[in-house]
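TL;DR need structure tokens for one chain.
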Amino acid sequence: MEIPLFGLGCAPMGNLFRPRTDEDCHATLDAAWQAGVRHFDTAPHYGLGLSEERIGRFLATRPRSEFVVSTKVGRLVRPNPSWDGQSQDDMGFAVPASSHRVLDYSADGVRRSLEESLTRLGLDRVDILYVHDPELSGDPAAVETALAGLAKLREEGLVDAIGTGSLSVQALTATVETGLADVVMVANRYTLLDQSVADGLLEACDRHGTRIVAAAVFSSGLLATTPRRGAMYNYGEVPDDILERAVRIAEVCAAHGVELATAALHYPLQDPRVVSIVAGAGRPEQVKQNLDRLAVSVPEALWTDLADQGLVPSCA
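>> reply
TL;DR here they are.
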């Protein structure tokens, strides 16, 4: 299966950080489609199923053979018996807490999760299915159990490719070492500021022929604009040492006439193991910005200069 080079991260379609109307989300998805985007990544986690529902309504009018959809398993969306009728979700999505997430990485759980995702998406299969953050289970066997369940779904033709999507390099490496994964989604760990993937994951991918999709390449926002205090990094407040390094990287990029966000998008793509990058967008103009940045030719001298200054290692 060919995975398009650029994928639209669809957490914003689940009202990540702020509410968005159906019309706002349709406009962003339509702008992406018109610009040639054919790779859409979502999860039940995103807005307690809202992202999948919105994507499903949009893609219902598009030819199935023309797009790639990835979603995730591990979190079942269930009615929240303690909802007070007013409170909002406490996981960063501006949606009512009338439902909540139940972690389930069992074979039965991942099957139920996919079946429910297919209903929300209006599809009979998905192209890529990831185990979502298996490290949250606290069970060392969760990766192997869930991957075995996904492999069965792959055999049945309900999904074409399987793997794990996670912030945890340990969970991603364990996924690759099962020998079952086609691809892993590396979130926040293959960026200009974090190359944790070098600690074993890349070598494991080489041995097993596993591909990488790099997600969250802007490090939760710090690399999307001029680095500043108060910006988000790794879903939290940016530490002083990270901010200092980001500022220095931005200065080197500027010296080569390259925008920091452009360098952030291009950096993981130097590695042939990386077949795609995924970046979120909550507005049509953000989609266009990212695609324009990908079209920029980044000079090799920039990567050399960053490596020579000890700021960023070159991609292997």
